[in-house]
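Entry for adenosine-5'-diphosphate complex. Fields follow.
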Amino acid sequence: MVSLRSFFSKFFKNTTTAKKSTMINLILFGPPGSGKGTQAAHLVEKYNLLHISTGDLFRSEIGNKTTLGLEAKNYMDKGELVPDTVTINMLKKKVDENPDVKGFIFDGFPRTIPQAESLDAMLLEDGQSITSLLALEVEDKEIVKRLLERAKTSGRSDDADENIIRNRIQVYLKNTAIVAGHYAKSNKSVTVNGIGTIEEVAARLSAAIDKTLVHQS
Ligand code: ADP
C-alpha cells in the first residue's frame, strides 16, 4: 500500500531541501559622496557578497551607448533620479543573473519607496529579505568637498558642478532619506558615522553588520 507520506511527497517534492539558505543582503545607504562605493569594496571581501551599484550600472550602459544609458544620462547629468521602472528593471536583471551568490550589497539602490517595495518583493519571491540598511552619516559641507575632490579623478560631470551636487543632496533629502524609515519599521536601519578614515568607517560598518548577524542567528 502507498503510504500517505510517499503519496504527498510527490506533490511537495523538495519543498524543504530546495529552500535556499538565508542570504546576507545589505543596503549601503547615505547621501551622495558619503562613501558607499568605497566601503562596499571592503565589505564585499569581508562577507563574500556581490556588490551592485545602480550608478555604476548606469555609467556602464552610458559607456556602451545603449538606449537605457542614453535615457539615464539625461537625468544623471542634472542630478535627478532615473525613473523607477527603468531602474528597477535594470536592478532585477542583475539580481536574476546571479542566483547563486551568498548575498548582495546594494549601493545607491533603493532610492525611493517604490524601489524599496520592489526590492522587498523581489527578494521575498526567493524566500529572502534585506538583512540591514546601513546609513552613512556625513554632513553637507563635507559631501560637497569630497565630491568636488572626486571630480578631479572620476571624470564624472555630476561631481564637478556644485549646483548639481546641491541638487543631488536635495533629491536625497526629498525622495531617498525616507527609505531608511521604511526599513526602520522592521528594525533593520542602522546609522553609522561616515566621518573618519576609510578603515575607521569600515570597522564601524563591520561591527554594525556583525551585531545584526548575531541577532539574526
Ligand atoms: P552618488 O551616490 O555619489 O550620487 P551614484 O553613482 O550612486 O552616485 O549615482 C549617480 C546618479 O545615478 C544619481 O544621481 C542618479 O541620477 C542615478 N541613479 C543611481 N542609482 C539610482 C537609483 N536607484 N534610482 C534612480 N537614479 C539612480
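NOTE: The two ends are 42 Å apart (CA to CA).
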